[in-house]
Amino acid sequence: MIVPPGHRGYPWRTAQSIPRRPQRKHPMTARISHIELDDRNLPPPTPEIEQERKVAMYDLLEDNSFALPARDGRDVPDGPYRVALSIRERRLVFDITTEDMGQVAEFHLSLSPFRQVVKDYWAICESYFDAVKTMPPSQIETIDMARRGIHNEGARILQERLEGKAEIDADTARRLFTLICVLHYGG
How far is it, in rounded angstroms, from Cα 60 to Cα 132? Predict the structure, then answer.
């Protein structure tokens, strides 16, 4: 099978094989410096899901844009921020702290707007993982295009749900959506 060099999202792409970016596009304070997933109550991930998680976390920490706007007339401490993602009481929870662990914010988002797109994303991922094993590159590319479209839709929903709570760019939204899918997969 022919592997397009550096093509994002392929299961053979490992976090160690990703080249480091020389510069960040975003200010050093408007970013996530640490990401944590609370997956304690989830079943063990498949190798493919674990790979998706690792790559999304690596990419997110390498380059992201995450800023918290002032809310209710209160200033928000500058980042960089530590973000813990979890699912509690059927809600997606973003727990945000400063690097010295000072509490900054906690957002609770309904999972309902994500349910269908997460379901579609895992269905297309399963097709993609199977296709990589047996299909020619042209068919893999078609499935991958569909997967990216669903992924973009999930990222758009996340940006909408975080409006007024956190400002994130499209790439950051895509990576966070992948991590939401990982949490949602077992939840």
Answer: 25
48 φ, ψ to 5°? Answer: -65, -40
pTM attached to this predicted model = 0.82
Handedness of CA 119, 60, 45, 103 (dihedral sign): negative
Confidence check: pLDDT of 100 > 80:
yes
The whole-number pLDDT of residue 72 equals 78
- The stretch 99-112 carries a mean pLDDT of 93
Q: Could you give the angle at which helices 170-186 and 47-62 cross, rounded to 10 degrees?
A: 150
For the CA atoms of the chain, what is the radius of gyration? 17
Tell me how far CA of residue 181 lies from CA of 96, 136, 177, in angstroms. 19, 27, 6
Q: What are phi and psi of 176, to 5 degrees?
A: -65, -35
- In whole angstroms, what is the distance from residue 141 CA to residue 72 CA? 47
41-62 tens-digit pLDDT: 888 888 888 888 999 999 999 9
Is residue 33 within 8 A of residue 81, CB to CB? The reply is yes
Question: By the 8 A CB rule, do 180 and 158 touch?
Answer: yes
d(C-alpha 109, C-alpha 93), whole Å: 6
Domain definitions of the chain by residue range? 15-186
